[in-house]
Amino acid sequence: MSAIASNTSASTSGGNNGNGAGHGAGVRTVGSELHSSAVVDQAIKAIVGEVKAKSAKITGERGPLDPALKVSFEEAMKRAAEVRGRGLLYPYLGSGIGNGALVELMDGSVKWDMIAGIGVHFFGHSDPGMIEAGLRGAMGDTVNHGNLQANFEVYQFGEKLLKLAQRKSKLAHVYPSTSGAMANENAVKVCYQKHAPASRVIAFKDCFMGRSVTMSQIGDAAAYRVGIPLSTQVDYMPFYDPVMAERMGQKRYIDMCVSHLTQYIERYPKQHACFIFELVQGEGGFNVGTRDYFKALMDVCKANNIAVWDDEIQSFGRTEQMFAYEHFDLGDYVDVFCVGKMTQVCATMFTKEYNPGPGLLSGTFVSGGAQFQTGTQVLDRLEKGNWYGGEGVFAKHHRLFREQVHALAKKYPQWFPSVSEKYGQLGELANGLGGMMRFTPFGGEKAKIEKAAKAMFEEGVIVFYCGHGPYHLRMLPPLPVFDEKDWPRVFACVERGLAKAAQ
Fold it and tell me: Which of 44, 51, 208, 493 could form a disulfide with 283 if both were Cys (CB 3.0 to 4.6 A apart)?
């Protein structure tokens, strides 16, 4: 039985987590009897084994298996569009199985999934450990756990997340939620309450916070807030610009940005509740800052009683340390923190000083048993694997990704015109950090980038785009289950897609 399974028998039985709490010596709850049942173990083993056997049949990208399947797939796409109100961005409807970075669609075609649900499926498709954890979590007496009524696996997940976070931070508490936007909504409420009546927010240019009413206002994308009343007051700071820093000198550049921040604070004294930091920007373009830059801004926040809110919903787990604040050695500054995507359960974390009053954070349900069990397994596997550090698995994969991009640019220089004059180093050929990877063909022009992404899908690899000029093609690959030797196979699809887009 796996580590996650050995804990589940108690955590889903109404409050026991395997440490003896809640029952006397020799006494077992009915729930613990169920979840430790040999019959259950055998059934789950049989299901996982069958999935593994079928998953092993998927070995590489391919087109639709049969014309009839293609017709039924197109009919399903039309039904999906009718339900949604518009066509799907990509013609993606999964069959329900895959093999690591490979996923089968309903028409029998197979794609390399290098975006992983924009970072959600970090352990790929049909992963045996994730399936086992999900099956065990689904055996709970309710589908969803609530804020009022929950089994202990909710808090077991929180304990694990806190244990990892507290290695390099002062974070003390965690409140789970069902989406990244809701985690961010909870974070801004915590900041508002702590610093009431301050109501202004500081954020970085090109940030993305989610699509709720408040988060769409904070996010720096006008297209995402069309028709939304603007009730949230936001001041935008420039994200770190390596070209400008090189031209001015690091110290002068940082001093200039500190002056910029100080002007906001002096213009609106005691009116800022928080500064939202994306240490590695996601939707904004996989832009990477520096410790000195972030530290200087955080020092100003601390001196002026402004909360430091670290949003790692997309970057968590993917940088060269588990937490981006660990990578930049900034954990002591963080007051409020958000995580999501790969953790399956999203969450807001905060220090003891920011623990809100009763009633501020609540909700009918916080997520399902399967999500808490798979989320706990994700944390376990991130903790135990050889993923992090300059020679870790993620850093090695990132170097291999860059090698593939540069080899492609050398072969087809016409696809990779310079964008440095127009956009600066933020538009360089390949960039990002760890499992956050981007590259910039066709001068970063939006229409051509979107065309390239769709052409690559047709050729067997799923990527997406990011940025606000230049635009980039981005990858969030399922690195823990991705083989180094498969990079050339993926980039063969990329090459075919770019060739089609260049026509």
Answer: 208
CA distances from 157 to 174, 312, 378, 394 (A): 10, 17, 10, 24
Contact 308, 336 (CB under 8 A): yes
Q: Which residues contact 232 (CB under 8 A, 6 or more apart)?
A: 201, 214, 217, 218
pTM of the model: 0.92
Q: Is 48 helix (H, G, I), strand (E, B) or coil?
A: helix
pLDDT at position 16 is 38
Question: What is the length of the chain?
Answer: 503
Please say whether the dihedral angle defined by the alpha carbons of residues 168, 475, 182 and 304, taken in this order, is positive or negative.
positive
Cα-trace Rg, the chain: 23
Which residues face 308 on adjacent strands? 275
Geometric angle at alpha carbon 383, from 10 and 102, rounded to 5° = 95
pLDDT confidence tier of residue 1, bands split at 50, 70 and 90 = very low
Host H or E run for residue 104: strand 102-105
SS (H, E, C) 408-451: HHHHCHHHCCCCHHHHCHHHCCEEEECCEEEECCHHHCHHHHHH
Q: Predicted confidence band at 423 (pLDDT cuts at 50, 70, 90)? A: low
Beta-strand relationship, 110-113 and 102-105: antiparallel
Maximum distance among all alpha carbons in the chain? 73
Rounded Cα gap, residues 386 and 392, in angstroms: 6
The whole-chain average pLDDT of the chain stands at: 93
Whether the CA torsion 372, 373, 375, 380 is positive or negative: it is: positive
| Contact predicate 195/202, CB 8 Å | no
Nearest CA to 233 out of 257, 260, 197 is that of 197
Strand partners, 430: 439
Query: What domains can you pick out in the chain, each with its CATH number?
Result: 3-61 (no CATH), 67-127+389-502 (3.90.1150.10), 144-384 (3.40.640.10)
Cα–Cα distance between 336 and 54 in angstroms, integer? 43
pLDDT in tens, 12-71: 333 333 333 444 557 889 999 999 999 999 999 999 999 999 999 999 999 999 999 999
User: Is the pLDDT at 121 greater than 90, yes or no?
Assistant: yes
Cα 487 → chain centroid? 22
Query: Is the Cβ–Cβ distance between 450 and 416 less than 8 Å?
Result: no
Phi, psi torsion values for 438, nearest 5 degrees: -145, 155
Six-digit token string for 55 = 């998953």
CA dihedral of 340, 341, 343, 349, whole degrees rounded to 10: 0
Contact 348, 336 (CB under 8 A): yes
Q: At what angle do helices 369-384 and 128-138 cross, to 10 degrees?
A: 150
